[in-house]
Amino acid sequence: MTHYWYHLAAFIVSALVVLWSTPLIKKFGLKRGLVDKPGGRKIHSRPMVRLGGVAIFAGTLAALLLVWWTGGFGILSPQKEYEVWGVTLGAVAFFLIGLADDLLTLPAISRLVMQLSVAAIVWQAGVQIEFLTVPFAGLVALPDFISLPITVIWLVGMANAVNMIDGLDGLAAGVSGIAAVVMLIVTLFMNQPAAALIAAALAGGALGFLRYNFNPAQIFMGDGGAYFMGFTLAGVGIIGLVKAVTTVAVLLPYLILAVPILDIFTVVVDRIRRGKSPFAADKRHLHHRLLQAGLSQRLAVLFIYSLTLWAGTLALALSNMPSGWGYAIGATVLLSFTSWQVWKTAKQS
Predict the structure, then answer these.
(1) Inter-axis angle of helices 52-69 and 3-32, to 10 degrees?
(2) Which residue pairs, CB below 8 angstroms and at least 24 apart, start in 261-265?
(3) What CA–CA distance (Å, rounded) separates 65 from 265?
């Protein structure tokens, strides 16, 4: 069995576990009253169970454990197996932080301190950004005292970025699923099977969850699911692309995840500029602005999907994989069409 079968198995098992477990989790949440009530800046109009992240977490972890149990980790070098466990256990910790917030509503500063601590431990385990691309200087190796804060900011920032875009039905799950599929393709092309295994499991879980989370949503993923997916994507980007030690590869994770990165960056900068706390909730995210322009939830989400896919196909093209530029051209056509739909709808409203 070639290692590609292990990646396919991870994707399918994760999706099936999510499809099976999500209705059970929804039933449990409704019975226990573990719901997100409408009001304030929230879009939904009825109480919604927000524990769907448990299903995504269970599906991803079950897929990786199955691959490990069947000997699939034998395709990895000892160092890579160590990195897989580093990303996986770090993602488990981030999931638990988010789940605790879903159940107990933790203070923002408490969540941040715990996230920073976990990310620092994961860095110590070998999940490290060791190179940056500097204009006119090319690839530059980073000493530990610079690598540590950059890695921690990347891991914590991406977890919170995915959580922040989780404001419309299916948005965070779809964006994460698209990004995970692109990372799966790129890491396989670059012969990084360790990162590809995690990406395959996460992609299956995220896309399987859309069956219940796309508009009109039946369940929300909550902070647990968003933190888990954001951290996992960031970790895969490090062990699968940044560690590939080529100028292009170092840039790819930032391109694949450009939509949530730019969203959190612009919102946080805007809050600071207005004298607000960067943790203060508001309605200045991209999805909020699209709704304010008169778009429906579905059109806003599909437009952001197309943006994410377009950025992902640019990464495919820059990685020089066969037909990469063809995919990028196709995604550009799709983005042009959805942009026209957005412009037409906004003009009529």
Answers:
(1) 150
(2) 261/157, 261/158, 261/161, 263/161, 263/164, 263/165, 264/157, 264/160, 264/161, 264/164, 264/165
(3) 35
Cα distance from N-terminal residue to C-terminal residue, the chain: 56
Long-range contacts of 39-47 (CB under 8 A, 24+ apart): 41/281, 41/282, 41/283, 41/288, 43/167, 43/168, 43/169, 43/291, 43/297, 44/217, 44/220
Is the whole model's pTM more than 0.90, yes or no?
yes
Q: What is the DSSP letter of 217?
A: P
pLDDT of amino acid 1: 43
Distance between CA atoms of residues 220 and 132, nearest Å:
36
177 vs 205: CA distance, rounded Å:
8
The contacts of residue 254 (CB under 8 Å, 6+ apart) are 237, 261
Contact in structure between 62 and 17 (CB atoms under 8 Å)? yes
Q: Distance of CA 232 to CAs 137, 182, 196, Å?
A: 30, 14, 12
* Under-50 pLDDT residues of the chain: 1
Interval 227-248: pLDDT, tens: 999 999 999 999 888 765 555 6
211: exposed, middle or buried (C-beta count within 10 Å: 0-12, 13-18, 19+)?
middle
Distance (Å, rounded) from C-alpha 238 to C-alpha 250? 8
Can you give the residue ranges of every domain in the chain?
3-251
How far is it, in rounded angstroms, from Cα 42 to Cα 318?
Answer: 38
pLDDT of residue 241: 81
Check residue 287 and give its pLDDT. Answer: 92
Question: Is there a contact between 255 and 318 (Cβ–Cβ < 8 Å)?
Answer: yes
